[in-house]
Amino acid sequence: MSADELQVVGQLVNASNATLVVEAGDQRFVYKPMSGERPLWDFPINTLHLRERAAFVLSELLQWNIVPATVIASGPYGVGSLQNWVDAEVTSVDVFTPGEVPADWLTIISGIDEDGDEVTLAHANLPRLQQIAVFDALINNADRKAGHILTANDGTIYGIDHGVTFNAEDKLRTVLWGWIGAAISTELLQDLANVETKIDGSELTVLLDADEMLALKDRLAQLLESKTMPSPSPHWPAVPWPVF
Q1: 240 assigned to some structural domain
Q2: Rounded Cα distance, 6 and 143, in Å
Q3: Continuous H helices in 63-183
Q4: Are 140 and 222 in contact (CB under 8 A)?
Q5: Matching InterPro entries, A to Z (predicted)?
Q6: 87 in a domain, yes or no?
């Protein structure tokens, strides 16, 4: 697909970096050009689009289908990531007033909102969400907001927005803390073990630098050894803000 085929039809204005909606024929994509990436002090410059692709590659290696199909392509504003658009909404993470959290949901944190009202952040207790939580621990996701967990029209839950992932330093920030210390299922552990031998020969070695690859393999080894869901670090905020 060439840049000439992609037509900009919208923009996601609340995104931290340039995030455009583009179309080619009857196909719609989310396009994040490298030229629109805001420099970050803790991530190498001009690499966020590569991390979007890396998250998709690892999701495919695991056969978890978490990340919508994502490629590196040339668009109207230069090279960037191009991700399949998913018609979806946020249904599995929400903010409630105290006492209104559904009985089968997991409470994450309570606090005061901008109007001074008490609120509680919670998410559904679903195997798919726990799978995404394991995925986030593996890719070191620094920004798993509620708005980055989308339920498609067919009921499939996807994770999107993976520009700040795969850092060599621990940075896990997520709204999916409902299983702290819980055992990782045998099925997920088997998938992690199966991917261990695939990482070095994959496209990840091109998308990530040497230190990031070593850190990825270390995180994988830690998950396989501990067999438990991670706990928040005391050294940085555990939940991204805003949560949506």
Answers
A1: no
A2: 28
A3: 127-139
A4: no
A5: CHP03843
A6: yes
Distance CA 192, CA 202 (A): 15
| Beta carbons within 8 Å of 86's beta carbon, 6+ residues apart | 68, 150, 152, 158, 160
Sheet holding 27-33, edge to edge: 7-11, 20-24, 27-33, 78-84, 70-75
Q: Which residues contact 99 (CB under 8 A, 6 or more apart)?
A: none
How high is the pLDDT of residue 2?
A: 59
Q: What is the pLDDT of residues 195-227, one digit of tens each?
A: 999 999 999 999 999 999 999 999 999 999 999
Global pTM? Answer: 0.95
Q: Can the peptide bond before residue 242 be classed as cis, meaning omega within 30 degrees of 0?
A: yes
Q: What is the 3-state secondary structure (H, E, C) of 37-71?
A: CCCCCCCCCCCHHHHHHHHHHHHHHHCCCCCCCEE
Q: Domain total for the chain?
A: 1
Per-residue DSSP letter, 177: -
Largest CA distance in the chain: 53
Strand-pair category, 157-159 with 149-152: antiparallel
In a domain, 242, yes or no: no
Q: Residue 170 and residue 42: Cα distance in Å, rounded? A: 11
Cα dist. 243→59, 137, 150, 229 in Å?
23, 18, 14, 21
Domain that holds residue 47: 3-226
Residue 174 near residue 133 (C-beta atoms within 8 A):
yes
